[in-house]
Amino acid sequence: MTTASGKSGFPKGLKETDILLIESERLIIRNLQVDDLKNFLDYRTDPEVCRYQDWEVLDEAFARNFIDEQMHKSLDDLEEWIQLGIELKIEERLIGDLALRRHDRNGSIVEIGYAISPAYQRKGYAYEAVNCIIHHLFTEHEVHRITARIDPRNEGSLALLNRLNFVQEGRIRKCFYDEFDQEWVDEIMFGLLKEDYLR
Q1: C-beta separation of 3 from 19 below 8 A
Q2: What InterPro entries does this protein map onto (predicted)?
Q3: Alpha-carbon gap, residue 73 to 15, rounded angstroms
Q4: Which domains does the chain have, with CATH numbers?
Q5: Which is nearest to 191 in space by CA: 128, 108, 126?
Q6: What does the pLDDT look like over 84-125, one tens digit per residue?
Q7: CA-CA distance, 148 to 111, in Å (whole number)?
Q8: Mean pLDDT by 10 residues, the chain (199 residues)
Q9: Coil, strand or helix: which one is 60?
Q10: Is residue 13 left, alpha or beta, with left meaning phi > 0 and alpha meaning psi from -120 to 50?
Q11: CB count, 10 Å around CB of 191?
Q12: Which uninterrupted H or E stretch holds 2?
């Protein structure tokens, strides 16, 4: 895995180029761009993709504004979600996105989220992208813990986090109302410590 620049700890602040050009074998993790709009909408308007997320189906105007806001975000933005695009190198195409949010003032605890276009699921891209950002956060920055919250009905996401050695740390009962199924659903909390990942 390579990055666009050298190491930089969170407390000292990050430039956009410090994190937003991260490469794995098949993927590039980067800022969302205006040219991503069509591909972004392809999966963000799919009810099945939105079903297990905490966001609703997007319309074009909202998606355009969202990308405009995210284009210039960096991990200096405390307490805000930062959405990074997942680009498939061989097609030079956006196929999904990663979300990051710092939970403490020095950035040592980070929550992650992820979404992959259905057309590119079951090809190992989600694992590669999430593993890439985890590796980057643990080895290039002063992160000691990464968390994730998922809908227990999302079997693919459960399998992904288990494969990445996340530990289930709790379950919040009926804390999210699913408009799709019109029912209250649980949320499972997962965590991964730096020492566990590097070991």
Answers
A1: yes
A2: Acyl_CoA_acyltransferase, GNAT_dom, N-acetyltransferase
A3: 10
A4: 2-149 (3.40.630.30)
A5: 108
A6: 999 999 999 999 999 999 888 777 999 999 999 999 999 999
A7: 6
A8: 41 42 94 94 78 68 90 74 95 96 85 94 96 92 92 92 96 87 91 92
A9: helix
A10: left
A11: 17
A12: strand 2-3
Helix (H), strand (E) at residue 69: helix 60-70
**Residue 145, C-beta contacts closer than 8 angstroms, at least 6 positions apart:** 108, 109, 110, 191, 192, 193, 194
Amino acid present at 13:
G
* Closest among 136, 132, 108 to 193, alpha carbons compared: 108
**Among all chains, which residue has been given the structure tokens 């000292």?**
12
The answer to whether the CB of 31 falls within 8 A of the CB of 70 is yes
- CB neighbours (10 Å) of residue 126? 23
Q: Are 75 and 100 in contact (CB under 8 A)?
A: yes
Q: In angstroms, rounded to a whole number, what is the distance separating the alpha carbons of residues 118 and 192? A: 26
Strand ranges in 32-136 using DSSP code E only, listed in sequence order: 82-88, 93-102, 109-116
Residue 164 CA to residue 37 CA, distance in Å, equals 30
Which residues are within 8 A (CB) of 195 and not within 5 positions of it... i.e. 6 or more apart?
A: none
Which residues are 114's β-sheet partners? 98
161, 13, 16, 197 alpha-carbon torsion, rounded to 10°? -20
The reported pTM is: 0.85
Residue 18 pLDDT: 42
Residue 186: the pLDDT is 92
Residue 90 near residue 128 (C-beta atoms within 8 A): no
